[in-house]
Amino acid sequence: MRAVILEKLYDWSVAPYQYFKKNEAWQYNAEELKGYPKNSLGYHMGEFLIANSFQLQEKLESHDVFHVLIGTGITVPEEISMQFYLLGNGKRSLYLFTVICIGTILYPECWRYFKSKYTFGKSASAFHQLDFQKLLHQPIHRIKSTFLIP
Predict the structure, then answer these.
(1) Which of 17, 67, 101, 149 is the most exposed, fewest CB within 10 Å of its CB?
(2) Which residue segment(s) compose the domain that 115 sits in?
(3) Which helix (H) or strand (E) holds 144?
(4) Do residues 48 and 66 lie in contact, with contact meaning Cβ atoms separated by under 8 Å?
(5) DSSP 3-state assignment of 139?
(6) What digits encode the pLDDT tens for the residues 109-118?
C-alpha cells in the first residue's frame, strides 16, 4: 500500500515537474544510447533503460543517470535512498525533500539504509548538477572515479 501511495504521488507530480525544469529534453531512445561505446555512460544508460523496460522521460533524464552512476535499483525504498544520496551530494529541490519526508514516514524501517546512502552522497564530489548529455560518450568508470562515486 505504501508503494502505491508513493507511485501515485509520483504520477501526479511528473507533468508539473517537467514543466518547471529548464533543461532541454534529450533526443535519444534506449536503443540509440546502446549505440555508444560499451564502456560509456550512454551505453550503460541504454542498458539500464532496456533492462527495466523504460524509455527516457522528457526533461527527467538525469534521474536515470543517477540510477546508473549510483547503482541504485528501482524499488520504492531504493528510489527513496537515491534521493537521500543526492541530498548528501548537495542537490536541493522540492521534489527531493517531498520524497525524503514521505519516504521516511512510510518506510521507517529503512532509516539506516537511507542514512547510509546520505553518507555515501556526502563523500562523493558534487555531480548532481552536471550536464550529463555532454558526458554520454565518457567512460563510466572515469566519471565515477572523478566524482568519487563508489
Answers:
(1) 101
(2) 2-146
(3) helix 140-146
(4) no
(5) strand
(6) 999 999 999 9
Q: What is the 3-state secondary structure (H, E, C) of the chain?
A: CHHHHHHHHHHHHHHHHHHHCCCCCCCCCHHHHCCCCCCEHHHHHHHHHHHCCCCCCCCCHHHHHHHHHHCCCCCHHHHHHHHHHHHHCCCCCHHHHHHHHHHHHHCHHHHHHHHHHHHHHHHCCCCCCCCHHHHCCCEHHHHHHHCCCC
Of 97, 93, 76, 83, which is closest to residue 8 (Cα–Cα)? Answer: 76
The phi, psi pair for 76, rounded to 5°, reads -60, -50
Number of C-alpha atoms within 13 angstroms, CB side, residue 119?
6
Number of domains, the chain: 1
Share of the chain above pLDDT 90, in %: 69
Side-chain half-sphere CA neighbours of 148 within 13 A: 10
Describe the crossing of helices 111-123 and 76-88 by its angle, rounded to 10 degrees: 40
SS3 141: helix
